[in-house]
Design goal:
0% strand, mainly alpha, 11 helices
Protein backbone atom coordinates (compact mmCIF):
# COMPACT_ATOMS: atom_id res chain seq x y z
CA UNK A 1 0.00 0.00 0.00
CA UNK A 2 1.29 3.46 -0.90
CA UNK A 3 1.93 5.61 2.16
CA UNK A 4 0.36 9.05 1.98
CA UNK A 5 2.11 11.04 4.68
CA UNK A 6 0.42 14.42 4.55
CA UNK A 7 2.70 17.19 5.80
CA UNK A 8 1.00 18.61 8.92
CA UNK A 9 0.32 22.31 9.33
CA UNK A 10 2.62 24.26 11.64
CA UNK A 11 1.36 23.83 15.20
CA UNK A 12 1.27 26.39 18.01
CA UNK A 13 4.64 26.10 19.68
CA UNK A 14 6.40 24.77 16.61
CA UNK A 15 9.26 26.81 15.21
CA UNK A 16 8.05 29.02 12.37
CA UNK A 17 11.38 29.53 10.65
CA UNK A 18 11.93 29.29 6.90
CA UNK A 19 13.97 26.14 7.51
CA UNK A 20 11.08 24.23 9.09
CA UNK A 21 10.34 22.16 6.02
CA UNK A 22 14.00 21.45 5.30
CA UNK A 23 13.44 18.35 7.42
CA UNK A 24 13.55 15.49 4.86
CA UNK A 25 10.15 14.05 4.03
CA UNK A 26 11.44 10.54 4.72
CA UNK A 27 12.22 11.65 8.28
CA UNK A 28 8.70 13.06 8.67
CA UNK A 29 7.30 9.78 7.35
CA UNK A 30 9.47 7.85 9.77
CA UNK A 31 8.03 9.82 12.67
CA UNK A 32 4.43 9.51 11.48
CA UNK A 33 4.61 5.81 10.60
CA UNK A 34 6.60 5.03 13.72
CA UNK A 35 4.01 6.88 15.80
CA UNK A 36 1.24 4.86 14.16
CA UNK A 37 3.00 1.63 15.16
CA UNK A 38 3.53 2.76 18.75
CA UNK A 39 0.04 4.21 19.14
CA UNK A 40 -1.45 1.03 17.74
CA UNK A 41 0.34 -1.06 20.35
CA UNK A 42 0.39 1.21 23.41
CA UNK A 43 -2.40 3.76 22.88
CA UNK A 44 -2.15 7.51 23.36
CA UNK A 45 -1.76 7.38 27.14
CA UNK A 46 1.45 5.33 27.03
CA UNK A 47 2.79 6.82 23.81
CA UNK A 48 6.29 8.24 24.30
CA UNK A 49 7.99 10.40 21.63
CA UNK A 50 11.30 9.83 23.42
CA UNK A 51 10.93 6.05 23.07
CA UNK A 52 9.81 6.45 19.45
CA UNK A 53 12.80 8.60 18.55
CA UNK A 54 15.20 6.26 20.33
CA UNK A 55 13.84 3.37 18.27
CA UNK A 56 14.17 5.38 15.05
CA UNK A 57 17.58 6.73 16.08
CA UNK A 58 16.36 10.31 15.70
CA UNK A 59 16.78 13.23 18.13
CA UNK A 60 13.61 13.69 20.27
CA UNK A 61 13.71 17.43 19.57
CA UNK A 62 12.45 16.72 16.03
CA UNK A 63 8.96 16.01 17.41
CA UNK A 64 8.49 19.49 18.83
CA UNK A 65 10.46 21.05 15.99
CA UNK A 66 8.10 19.78 13.32
CA UNK A 67 4.82 18.88 15.05
CA UNK A 68 4.87 21.36 17.90
CA UNK A 69 4.01 18.90 20.66
CA UNK A 70 3.54 15.26 21.57
CA UNK A 71 -0.24 15.65 21.22
CA UNK A 72 0.04 17.10 17.72
CA UNK A 73 2.05 14.07 16.62
CA UNK A 74 -0.62 11.79 18.10
CA UNK A 75 -3.33 13.68 16.21
CA UNK A 76 -1.50 13.68 12.87
CA UNK A 77 -0.57 10.01 13.15
CA UNK A 78 -4.11 8.97 14.12
CA UNK A 79 -5.63 10.81 11.16
CA UNK A 80 -3.09 9.33 8.74
CA UNK A 81 -3.73 5.86 10.16
CA UNK A 82 -7.47 6.22 9.54
CA UNK A 83 -6.86 7.38 5.97
CA UNK A 84 -4.65 4.33 5.39
CA UNK A 85 -7.35 2.10 6.88
CA UNK A 86 -9.99 3.45 4.46
CA UNK A 87 -7.62 3.04 1.52
CA UNK A 88 -7.20 -0.59 2.53
CA UNK A 89 -10.98 -1.10 2.70
CA UNK A 90 -11.28 -0.41 -1.03
CA UNK A 91 -9.41 -3.65 -1.74
CA UNK A 92 -12.64 -5.47 -0.82
CA UNK A 93 -14.08 -4.38 -4.17
CA UNK A 94 -11.62 -6.71 -5.92
CA UNK A 95 -13.58 -9.77 -4.76
CA UNK A 96 -15.56 -11.55 -7.47
CA UNK A 97 -19.00 -11.44 -5.84
CA UNK A 98 -20.85 -8.73 -3.91
CA UNK A 99 -21.25 -11.00 -0.89
CA UNK A 100 -17.55 -11.77 -1.02
CA UNK A 101 -16.84 -8.05 -1.14
CA UNK A 102 -18.92 -7.48 2.00
CA UNK A 103 -17.17 -10.32 3.82
CA UNK A 104 -13.77 -8.90 2.81
CA UNK A 105 -14.78 -5.39 3.91
CA UNK A 106 -15.82 -6.66 7.35
CA UNK A 107 -12.76 -8.89 7.75
CA UNK A 108 -10.50 -5.98 6.82
CA UNK A 109 -12.10 -3.69 9.39
CA UNK A 110 -11.83 -6.28 12.14
CA UNK A 111 -8.19 -7.08 11.30
CA UNK A 112 -7.23 -3.40 11.23
CA UNK A 113 -8.98 -2.64 14.53
CA UNK A 114 -7.35 -5.60 16.28
CA UNK A 115 -3.91 -4.55 15.02
CA UNK A 116 -4.50 -0.84 15.72
CA UNK A 117 -6.60 -1.00 18.87
CA UNK A 118 -4.70 1.90 20.44
CA UNK A 119 -5.57 4.18 17.51
CA UNK A 120 -9.13 2.88 17.35
CA UNK A 121 -9.56 3.93 20.98
CA UNK A 122 -8.33 7.46 20.14
CA UNK A 123 -10.91 7.78 17.35
CA UNK A 124 -13.79 6.00 19.13
CA UNK A 125 -13.36 7.45 22.63
CA UNK A 126 -11.89 10.97 22.26
CA UNK A 127 -10.92 12.56 25.54
CA UNK A 128 -10.91 9.28 27.45
CA UNK A 129 -7.83 7.62 26.02
CA UNK A 130 -6.14 10.53 24.28
CA UNK A 131 -6.97 13.84 22.59
CA UNK A 132 -10.42 15.34 23.04
CA UNK A 133 -12.71 16.38 20.20
CA UNK A 134 -11.62 20.00 20.57
CA UNK A 135 -7.96 19.08 20.05
CA UNK A 136 -8.63 17.80 16.53
CA UNK A 137 -8.16 20.80 14.25
CA UNK A 138 -10.49 21.70 11.40
CA UNK A 139 -7.94 20.15 9.05
CA UNK A 140 -8.02 16.91 11.02
CA UNK A 141 -11.82 16.87 11.10
CA UNK A 142 -12.00 17.51 7.37
CA UNK A 143 -9.58 14.69 6.56
CA UNK A 144 -11.35 12.26 8.88
CA UNK A 145 -14.76 13.12 7.48
CA UNK A 146 -13.50 12.83 3.92
CA UNK A 147 -12.10 9.38 4.64
CA UNK A 148 -15.31 8.30 6.40
CA UNK A 149 -17.43 9.42 3.44
CA UNK A 150 -15.15 7.45 1.13
CA UNK A 151 -15.46 4.35 3.31
CA UNK A 152 -19.25 4.72 3.42
CA UNK A 153 -19.26 4.95 -0.37
CA UNK A 154 -17.37 1.66 -0.59
CA UNK A 155 -19.77 -0.08 1.78
CA UNK A 156 -22.84 1.44 0.06
CA UNK A 157 -21.53 0.29 -3.31
CA UNK A 158 -21.21 -3.25 -2.00
CA UNK A 159 -24.70 -3.11 -0.45
CA UNK A 160 -26.13 -1.72 -3.69
CA UNK A 161 -24.59 -4.59 -5.63
CA UNK A 162 -26.07 -7.13 -3.22
CA UNK A 163 -29.47 -5.46 -3.72
CA UNK A 164 -29.02 -5.62 -7.51
CA UNK A 165 -29.01 -1.86 -8.10
CA UNK A 166 -27.46 -1.10 -11.53
CA UNK A 167 -26.06 2.24 -10.34
CA UNK A 168 -23.87 0.37 -7.87
CA UNK A 169 -21.72 -0.98 -10.68
CA UNK A 170 -19.86 2.30 -10.26
CA UNK A 171 -18.92 3.79 -6.88
CA UNK A 172 -21.98 5.09 -5.04
CA UNK A 173 -21.94 8.84 -4.41
CA UNK A 174 -23.71 10.61 -1.55
CA UNK A 175 -26.46 11.61 -3.99
CA UNK A 176 -26.96 8.03 -5.14
CA UNK A 177 -27.04 6.74 -1.57
CA UNK A 178 -29.71 9.30 -0.65
CA UNK A 179 -31.81 8.17 -3.62
CA UNK A 180 -31.91 4.59 -2.33
CA UNK A 181 -33.12 4.55 1.29
CA UNK A 182 -32.73 0.77 1.58
CA UNK A 183 -29.06 1.08 0.64
CA UNK A 184 -28.61 3.89 3.15
CA UNK A 185 -30.42 1.91 5.86
CA UNK A 186 -28.42 -1.25 5.26
CA UNK A 187 -25.15 0.71 5.12
CA UNK A 188 -25.86 2.31 8.50
CA UNK A 189 -26.92 -0.98 10.09
CA UNK A 190 -23.91 -2.89 8.80
CA UNK A 191 -21.58 -0.04 9.73
CA UNK A 192 -22.73 -0.07 13.35
CA UNK A 193 -22.76 -3.88 13.48
CA UNK A 194 -19.17 -4.18 12.28
CA UNK A 195 -17.94 -1.26 14.39
CA UNK A 196 -19.23 -2.91 17.55
CA UNK A 197 -17.93 -6.30 16.42
CA UNK A 198 -14.44 -5.00 15.61
CA UNK A 199 -14.15 -3.03 18.85
CA UNK A 200 -15.23 -6.11 20.83
CA UNK A 201 -12.74 -8.31 18.98
CA UNK A 202 -9.89 -5.85 19.55
CA UNK A 203 -10.42 -5.52 23.30
CA UNK A 204 -10.71 -7.69 26.38
CA UNK A 205 -13.96 -7.20 28.28
CA UNK A 206 -12.84 -7.91 31.83
CA UNK A 207 -16.32 -8.32 33.41
CA UNK A 208 -17.36 -11.12 31.03
CA UNK A 209 -14.12 -12.54 29.61
CA UNK A 210 -13.98 -15.50 32.00
CA UNK A 211 -17.70 -16.36 32.19
CA UNK A 212 -17.99 -19.89 30.74
CA UNK A 213 -21.23 -19.37 28.81
CA UNK A 214 -19.85 -16.18 27.24
CA UNK A 215 -16.65 -17.95 26.21
CA UNK A 216 -18.68 -20.80 24.72
CA UNK A 217 -20.89 -18.52 22.66
CA UNK A 218 -18.25 -16.04 21.52
CA UNK A 219 -17.07 -18.05 18.52
CA UNK A 220 -20.65 -18.67 17.41
CA UNK A 221 -21.46 -14.98 17.64
CA UNK A 222 -18.34 -14.01 15.70
CA UNK A 223 -19.10 -16.51 12.94
CA UNK A 224 -22.64 -15.13 12.60
CA UNK A 225 -21.58 -11.53 11.92
CA UNK A 226 -20.91 -11.83 8.20
CA UNK A 227 -24.06 -13.89 7.40
CA UNK A 228 -26.08 -11.42 9.46
CA UNK A 229 -24.57 -8.48 7.57
CA UNK A 230 -25.36 -10.13 4.24
CA UNK A 231 -28.97 -10.64 5.35
CA UNK A 232 -29.13 -6.99 6.43
CA UNK A 233 -27.85 -5.92 3.02
CA UNK A 234 -30.46 -8.02 1.23
CA UNK A 235 -33.43 -7.03 3.38
CA UNK A 236 -32.68 -4.18 5.78
CA UNK A 237 -36.37 -3.39 6.18
CA UNK A 238 -37.03 -6.74 7.87
CA UNK A 239 -34.33 -6.00 10.44
CA UNK A 240 -35.39 -2.40 11.00
CA UNK A 241 -39.08 -3.24 11.38
CA UNK A 242 -38.30 -6.04 13.82
CA UNK A 243 -36.53 -3.40 15.89
CA UNK A 244 -39.46 -1.02 15.66
CA UNK A 245 -37.90 1.41 13.19
CA UNK A 246 -39.90 3.41 10.66
CA UNK A 247 -40.78 1.67 7.42
CA UNK A 248 -38.67 2.28 4.35
CA UNK A 249 -40.59 1.94 1.09
CA UNK A 250 -38.02 2.27 -1.68
Amino acid sequence: MTVKATTPAVRPGARRSSSLYHLPMDTIQQLLLGAIDDLAEYGATRFSPVTLCARLKLPPSLVNYHFGSRMSLILDASVLAYEQYVEGQEVALDEATAEGQLAAWIDSQVAWTIKHSGIASVLNFPGLTGPSNSEFTMEHQSRLEGAAVKNMAVLSTIVGRIQGIPQAEEMMTQEKIAAYPKVALATAMIGWLTLGHSVWRSGHHIPTSEIPVVKQQTAAVFSAVIPTAISMAKNPVAFSESAGAAKVTR
